[in-house]
Structure formats: C-alpha cells, structure tokens
Specification:
Blueprint (H helix, E strand, L loop, with lengths): L15 H10 L11 E6 L5 H9 L3 E7 L2 H13 L5 E5 L13 E6 L8 H14 E12 L4 H14 L7 H17 L3 H4 L3 H10 L3 H9 L8 H10 L3 E5 L7 H4 L5 H5 L4 H12 L3 E7 L7 H8 L4 E3 L9 E4 L2 E4 L3 H11 L5 H5 L9 H13 L3 E3 L9 H4 L4 E2 L3 H10 L5 E6 L4 E6 H12 L5 H11 L11 H22 L4 E2 L1
Parallel strand pairs: 1-2, 1-4, 2-3, 4-5
Antiparallel strand pairs: 5-7, 6-7, 8-11, 9-10, 12-15, 13-14
Length: 505
C-alpha cells in the first residue's frame, strides 16, 4: 500500500525462463518464449524486476500494475532511463482491478499482494488471474504462509501495539518496537522462554532494513494462508499447482529432513505433499507457480525439455559453494558429476547435451547430467538461462576500459548506486537476471568511466563523493581498493564479460 518505502530489489524468480523451469520440474509444458508473449505483474512496485525482464525479452509485452502512485512514477522513470518501449506501468486500485480492460497474458505474477487482508483485493486478484491468464499460461503467487507465519505475526502485533500511541515516523516506531521485543527477550519473558524459535524470528527482524521493516509493520494489514487454501482458491479459477519457485522444495530429499521422506513419498496428492512439508519446516513464506490447462509431460518428455535448457552461473567454479543448507537439511555437491557440471557451467552456460559432448564427462549421458543440474539448481547458484553463453576471450579481459552495454543496468546504477547492499543486473545475452553486490556494481561502473591505470583512484573518488568508504582491517583504504580490484578482475570480470554486463570499450 502507499507509504514512503520503495523496494528496488530484483526478483529473479519472476523471470519467465525461471518460471518455465519450475513448470518443467512439475511435469507441465510451459509457454514458448521464442515468439511474442504477454506478461503482467500485479504489485510491480518500482518496476525493477519487470523492467529488467522486459530488457531481457524485447519480444515480450509487459504491463506492471500497482496501487501506489509514487511507485508507478518511479517505475515509469526507470523504464524511460532504460530505453524500454515494451513495458508500461499502470496506477490502479487493486480492489477495483477486476473490471480493468486488460488482454490475456501468458504470465501473471501476483507479487506481494496475495496476502493483503482486504477481501475486496483478494477477490479481485482471483478474478483477474482466472479471467486473464491464457490457456497454457503460468501464474506466480507469493504470500505469507501458515503454520510458520503465525509466530512471526505475534511479534509484529506486539511491536505495532507497543508503538500505537507514538507520533514519530514509521522507522522510529519500528525501532521502538524492536527495542521492546528485545527487552522482552533479554529479560526472559515467557513469550520467548516458552517459544525459543521466536528468538530467531526477532533476529531476522532486527537484521532487516529499518525502512523495509517499518513498511512490513505499518502498511496494509496482511493475512497468512495455508497452502491448501491457496491451492483450493486457484483450483476454483482453473489453475493447477505446478511447483515451488523456492527450488529445493520440489525435491523430497532436500525439502525436509530424512525422517520425513517416507511421509512425503506416501502423500496421496501434491496438496498433501506441500501441506506436510510446510508443517515439517514450519513454513513462513511461499513462492508458488500455477498453470492453466498446461499439457502434462511424462518423465521422458520432461527430461528431454530439461536437457535443452542452458545452465549457467554468476560465479566462477572456485566460488561455487559445494556445501549448502536448506533449513535442517544439508546437501554436499561432492560427487564427480557435480564437479563436472559446475566446471562446465561456470565456463559458459551450456545444455546437458552440450556438456555430454565435452571431454571428461565420459559415460555420463544427458539424463544423468540433467539430474545433476536439477539438484545443483536447488542451491540457486546454478540457474536456468534462456540462452547459452561463451567465456570471455583473453583479449577482452585485458581491455583498458569497458562499456556498460545494457541500458537497464546503467539506469539502475544511475538511480541506486551506493544506496543499498545489492543491485539488480540483467544479462540480455543469457536471459537471466541477478542481484550483484554493490561493490561489484561500483567496480563495473568505474571500469566504464576510467582506464585501468586510473581505476583505483576513480573508485576512491566515487566513494568519497558518496561519503562512503571501503571497509578494511589493515593498511589504507587505497590499498584495500587495489586489493579488491585485483579480486574483481580475477573472479568477477570474466563473468561480467560472459554475461554482457560489461564489454570492451
């Protein structure tokens, strides 16, 4: 709802290629991206995700809708800065959206709006999704989930009640609410003593940006939902559950601890599978993908389509984490096939068929490679790309100066440089989007503004102008910048060139 807070995050799960991948994991044929398609995001906010996706898919038509006029103004400005002509943003009251004159869409994303407590909004969202999602289309829905959110809701309610009489701005009120909850915990109040898990929830709240937390606490009321409630509502408008955009939840072995594997395997329906899993994990938030009349694929057809997807990475092979944790479940990528796929995908995005033809894969066929890629993707370091990529040539790595060829990325730098921890960048070559560290974003911008011999000084000046500095433990800030720049050139620059974030200038 309307307030001072605006999120400038990029949500990679909204990428149609990512949504298509989830559909394939669930055994459904997704829409085809090679021709034209239409995409609508309801709850588009400042338009970061939708504009980034529009930049990746110039053949698509995109509409973003939000009930906050300030967010729509920001979205329109960002799209203009990014030179996009295939996206438009509309200010609409969500409760009255059902009567809007909208076309049929291949994708409809209900972003951070499905948990709004207003029943008129909830009903309008269902009507829009049911009436305007084309046959074979895909809908993304994220929402606060039960049973886990009930505990978090208690903390939020207490923070709001404690600050109801304060007349300060929302950020100050949010901090006062946190201080109150921390006092209860420090003094071992029964709320925390009898519910140890609440301490972790409070830690998460305390680690959240205070403006974002204030938005969460004092904006429109929300309600949490059980998965089976959402599945029933979607079934009522002709949509069927395909899978979770939180990828590990699609795999029994890493969705829950081993003691519960049999329970999930014996689930009579997918709704039962998800409901059991939510109870086991005490799920607080869900990102679900639904389809409308999408053809179901048998295992062979599904695997054949998965084998056609190029998988790539944002990091090099050395930085790829081999140990990942999903709640109470640990996963180690230490088998030979995992190492082979990590090495191959880190050196340019490739399909399973392309990897099978490479030296070193030996007797591993596309089926085994695809299976390994699926498990690696659960950690979300290996991602489905829309197109293969090639490693940067040595000559490009040695360029004296670079360019920022993607207008969207430059627009994000122009508007948000050094204003948040990460920044959304998109690869128009790969059809993939990422959140990169702000320091890497700064280095990329400076590499396009100054030649190599002046780069460290230019970075220092950029930080000085923004009244920020590089954090360092010993030596000087200048030395810390030079050390970080060496690291960037060795490990991030090759990826930035591969993905087209940078190009030789």
């Amino acid at each position: 709802m309307t307030d001072a807070y605006q999120s400038w995050d990029f949500t990679k799960e909204l990428n149609p290629q990512f949504l298509n991948y989830v559909c394939l994991l669930g055994g459904h044929a997704p829409p085809v991206l090679t021709g034209g398609f239409r995409y609508c995001q309801i709850g588009c906010g400042t338009g970061v995700s939708l504009s980034g996706i529009a930049a990746m898919y110039p053949n698509g038509e995109f509409i973003g809708i939000d009930n906050d006029p300030a967010c729509i103004d920001a979205a329109v400005a960002l799209a203009a800065d990014a030179d996009l002509d295939n996206v438009q943003f509309l200010h609409r009251e969500l409760a009255k959206l059902a009567g809007a004159d909208l076309p049929a869409f291949d994708y409809i994303a209900l972003s951070d709006v499905y948990s709004l407590a207003d029943p008129a909004i909830h009903g309008a969202l269902l009507l829009i999704a049911g009436a305007h999602l084309a046959p074979g289309g895909v809908s993304f829905v994220n929402y606060h989930a039960l049973p886990g959110f009930s505990a978090l809701a208690n903390l939020r309610d207490l923070a709001r009640f404690h600050t109801v009489s304060l007349t300060h701005d929302d950020a100050t009120k949010a901090q006062a609410g946190l201080d109150y909850l921390a006092h209860l915990r420090d003094k071992k109040a029964g709320l925390f003593a009898d519910n140890p898990a609440l301490s972790a929830y409070l830690d998460d709240m305390m680690g959240t940006d205070i403006d974002r937390l204030a938005h969460d606490l004092f904006a429109a009321p929300v309600r949490a939902l059980h998965f089976h409630q959402v599945a029933d509502e979607m079934d009522g408008i002709g949509l069927a559950y395909s899978g979770s955009a939180t990828l590990n939840l699609n795999f029994i072995d890493i969705a829950v601890p081993p003691d519960f594997h049999d329970l999930l395997r014996k689930s009579a329906t997918r709704t039962a599978f998800e409901t059991h899993g939510d109870a086991i994990r005490n799920q607080t938030y869900r990102r679900d993908v639904f389809t409308k009349d999408a053809p179901e694929l048998d295992e062979a057809a599904r695997d054949a389509k998965l084998a056609e997807i190029p998988f790539g990475t944002l990091c090099d092979a050395d930085a790829f984490q081999r140990q990942v944790r999903f709640g109470e479940v640990d996963l180690s990528f230490d088998a030979e096939i995992f190492e082979l796929v990590i090495a191959a995908a880190s050196d340019g995005a490739k399909t399973a068929a392309q990897m099978a033809d490479m030296d070193g894969f030996g007797g591993y066929g596309p089926e085994i490679i695809t299976d390994a890629a699926r498990f690696l993707s659960a950690g979300e370091q290996l991602l489905p790309f829309n197109a293969a990529t090639s490693p940067a040539p040595a000559a490009a790595l040695g360029a004296d100066k670079f360019a920022l060829p993607v207008h969207f990325n430059f627009a994000m730098l122009k508007q948000r440089l050094l204003k948040q921890p990460t920044l959304g960048f998109v690869s128009t070559a790969a059809g993939a989007g990422f959140e990169i560290s702000m320091m890497d974003a700064l280095f990329a911008l400076c590499a396009a503004e100054a030649p190599a011999g002046q780069l460290s000084d230019h970075i220092f000046n950029r930080l000085f102008e923004a009244r920020q500095q590089m954090i360092f433990e010993e030596g000087s800030e200048t030395e810390a910048i030079k050390t970080a720049l060496i690291e960037f050139r060795a490990h991030r620059l090759p990826k930035f060139l591969e993905l087209g974030f940078l190009a030789p200038g």
